[in-house]
Design a protein that fits this description.
By secondary structure, the chain is α/β, with parallel strands linked by helices. 25% of the residues lie in helices and 20% in strands. It has six helices and twelve strands. The protein is globular and about 50 Å long.
Length: 274
């Protein structure tokens, strides 16, 4: 099972208007999650981390996505909606703000994309919010979690899930220590792992919980044909795991007012700055 995760943080430059240091924490937390048992036991050389990348650097990785069995794409930074075209844009660095279609040019047959950025009709918005915690995750059973994740993924239908931190026209809260929605996704995965016997937590299940935690500030949105792609693995310390089989569309697909439907070279963890 070939996986790739591309994690992008675009804080821009320190001292620059709109500087978002919390995006760096977001990527650190998401990377730690992926490498953990809960995150599905990813390995170092499957994860690419970019900071303030150029559009061409992103495209050079995205173009390889179709050759993988599963891709996870994450972006934390500024974004906006073009008021004339309605196209979503992301501020990759201090000079480039491409539309999604200009950089996310290819996709994997099974892919989850999480975009924690504003979608308001303006370029920059840095809202304040409660100071969130940073996360550390257990890796003791990450090898077993990887097997469970892969076995379930083989049974999943082809799908591309998009999670947005907010609706079109809304801004998203970010603090100096991370994005409100990003941290609520991780809180949701942890909560569900402690309160459900299921071995696999789907994108729809995790999103539904994250939505309930975020909706008081801004309303996240999910687009997914099935809502069945795996997001987290739940391995209780005792008892063997029976891998869930996605036989039908998730029953919670229509929850709330939303619509449901990377390799580090030689094991190195690097940042590319603009």
């Amino acid at each position: 099972m070939k996986r790739i995760a591309l994690l992008i943080c675009s804080p821009l430059l320190e001292g620059q208007h709109g500087y978002l240091p919390g995006t760096i924490y977001d990527v650190m937390n998401m990377r730690n999650f992926l490498l953990s048992t809960l995150g599905g036991g990813w390995v170092e050389d499957e994860i690419i981390v970019l900071q303030n990348p150029t559009a061409e650097q992103v495209r050079s990785i995205i173009v390889k996505f179709p050759s993988f069995d599963f891709a996870f794409l994450y972006y934390s930074g500024h974004g906006f909606t073009d008021s004339s075209t309605g196209a979503p844009h992301i501020n990759l660095n201090s000079v480039e703000s491409p539309s999604l279609n200009e950089v996310f040019i290819r996709q994997c047959e099974k892919q989850t994309t999480v975009l924690d950025c504003c979608r308001g009709y303006q370029k920059y918005s840095n809202l304040s919010g409660p100071e969130p915690e940073t996360f550390s995750f257990d890796r003791k059973q990450s090898h077993q979690a990887r097997k469970v994740f892969n076995s379930y993924l083989l049974r999943c239908p082809k799908d591309h899930t998009f999670m947005w931190a907010s609706q079109v026209g809304q801004n998203s809260i970010d603090t100096g220590n991370g994005g409100y929605f990003s941290l609520n996704i991780l809180r949701a995965a942890e909560y569900l792992a402690k309160n459900t016997p299921k071995s696999i937590l789907t994108v729809n299940e995790v999103f539904s919980r994250a939505y309930s935690l975020t909706k008081d500030r801004h309303q996240p949105v999910i687009h997914s044909a099935s809502g069945l792609l795996p997001f987290a693995v739940n391995l209780p310390e005792q008892s063997s795991q029976n891998v869930s089989k996605p036989l039908q569309k998730s029953a919670s697909t229509d929850v709330g007012p939303f619509l449901v439907g990377a390799a580090l070279l030689a094991g190195l963890f690097y940042f590319i700055t603009d």
